From TrEMBL:
Name of the protein: 5-methylthioadenosine/S-adenosylhomocysteine deaminase
Domain of life from the UniProt record: Bacteria
EC number(s) reported in the record: 3.5.4.28, 3.5.4.31
Reaction catalysed by this enzyme: S-adenosyl-L-homocysteine + H2O + H(+) = S-inosyl-L-homocysteine + NH4(+); S-methyl-5'-thioadenosine + H2O + H(+) = S-methyl-5'-thioinosine + NH4(+)
Cofactor(s) for this UniProt protein: Zn(2+)
SUPFAM superfamilies for the chain: Composite domain of metallo-dependent hydrolases, Metallo-dependent hydrolases
Lineage: Bacteria, Bacillati, Bacillota, Tissierellia, Tissierellales
Recorded family membership: Belongs to the metallo-dependent hydrolases superfamily. MTA/SAH deaminase family.
Length: 426
């Protein structure tokens, strides 16, 4: 395949736009970027006129089945939102609900330029099925909240790993997901860690999301949640740490020392009034902060361009510093840093020869994107999810001219609505 005459934002460590170039793809690999090569046979040509190519966006923390609870419980603090509305409803969830809710989210993500995600939820086999069908790339993690069924949930995680890890041409990975230190005892955190170690995989956990969580942790353990899991040894494995909102200097030192991957979820953190993660401080220390949407019932969408915009502008306001988290840094959070968090940085996260072709084409022939002064600024500050035109994952076109090729969008909308209505009246 050849993507011809396109302006490319490779996100390869340089703050650059390569004008009017050509991208060759063979099978799922980017084989050449640059001048037209007459010696390469091409079966398919995509015209890049008035388009920008960029790496597919990576949503590094989400709960995609929660789309069924979008706009169902809002304007509540995290604790009440979870304990009074979300958890009681989720207790009635069935596998089929999660299947249709996840597909709804995948359509939304594809249409918004997201090519890979890290999901934490239940009925993860259903998410695996949807992931395989959609053509997307993803990390599946079964959320582990410690209760009487805790042992069974660990067993389920192991089965999930055996069923899905490395499947779909390597597009699927499985990690272990103890939900948070406030829903898992130290013993259970260690059991989860041991399972991840046995499976030779990583951990996906929520850390230091709210002030209440920090206060409770100090009351219970005399230390911050991050220090707590550090002392338990949990951070010795590859760790994706959602939120890291309320972190102090010692916490940031730990994150740096253990090469933890914090995931900033600005939309969710603001909406639940959780606070501001010190993203600029962490980036300045060399920490790879990734970006996520969290679930679409706390956001209330899976629009990564919105998160890029929020990450870039809010840090400026909070730090009273207009150069804090510049456009390129916010784009890196949503691409290369996300790839590192998901343990896929050798394969995806930037557009370079040898990497897998997870590529998004943005239509810049839109009034709100003219004039074309600075494409990188445009991507962080002006582009909307609806400007995504074409999406490739693993060298395959999964959306073209905004038409999703892999999924039946009308059927998914219908079935998601049906299951959502049924769920809340069950
Ligand atoms: Zn979350």
């Amino acid at each position: 395949m050849l993507i011809k005459n396109i302006d490319l934002v490779p996100i390869d460590g340089k703050n650059e736009v390569i004008k009017n170039t050509n991208i060759y793809i063979k099978d799922n690999i980017i084989t050449h970027i640059g001048e037209i090569r007459e010696d390469i046979q091409v079966e398919r040509v995509i015209d890049g006129k008035n388009k920008i190519a960029m790496p597919g966006l990576i949503n590094a923390h989400t709960h995609i089945g929660m789309s069924l609870l979008r706009n169902f419980a809002d304007d509540l603090p995290l604790h009440d939102w979870l304990t009074k509305k979300i958890w009681p409803t989720e207790a009635n969830l069935r596998g089929e609900d999660v299947y249709w809710g996840s597909l709804l989210s995948m359509v939304e993500m594809i249409q918004g330029g997201t090519t890979a995600f890290c999901d934490m939820y239940f009925f993860m086999d259903e998410v695996g099925k949807g992931l395989e069908e959609s053509g997307m790339r993803g990390v599946l993690t079964r959320g582990l909240i410690e209760d009487n069924d805790a042992k069974a949930k660990l067993k389920e995680t192991k089965e999930l790993f055996n069923n899905w890890n490395s499947k779909a041409n390597g597009r699927i990975k499985v990690m272990v997901a103890p939900h948070a230190p406030y829903t898992c005892s130290p013993d259970f955190l260690i059991e989860s860690f041991n399972l991840a170690k046995e499976l030779n995989t990583g951990i996906h956990i929520h850390l230091s999301e709210t002030k209440k969580e920090i206060e409770d942790s100090f009351k219970l353990y005399g230390k911050s949640p991050i220090k707590h899991v550090y002392d338990l040894g949990i951070l010795d494995l590859h760790t994706i740490a959602a939120h890291c909102v309320h972190v102090d200097d010692e916490d940031i030192e730990i994150i740096k020392e253990k090469n933890v991957f914090p995931v900033n979820n600005p939309g969710s953190n603001f909406k639940l009034a959780s606070g501001f993660a010190p993203v600029a401080q962490m980036l300045n220390k060399g920490v790879s902060v990734a970006l996520g949407t969290d679930g679409s019932s706390s956001n209330n969408n899976l629009n990564m361009f919105e998160e890029i915009n929020l990450a870039a502008i809010i840090n400026k306001a909070v730090n009273l510093n207009a150069i804090s988290v510049p456009a390129i840094s916010a784009l890196e959070m949503a691409t290369v840093n996300g790839a590192k968090a998901l343990g896929w940085n050798e394969e995806i996260g930037s557009i370079e020869v040898g990497k897998k072709a997870d590529i998004v084409l943005i239509d810049i022939d839109k009034p709100h994107l003219y004039p074309h002064h600075n494409i990188i600024s445009s991507l962080a500050y002006s582009v909307q999810a609806s400007d995504v035109d074409t999406v490739l994952v693993d060298g395959k076109i999964i959306m073209e001219k905004r038409e999703v090729k892999t999924l039946d969008v009308e059927k998914i909308k219908f079935m998601a609505e049906k299951h959502a209505k049924d769920l809340i009246t069950r």
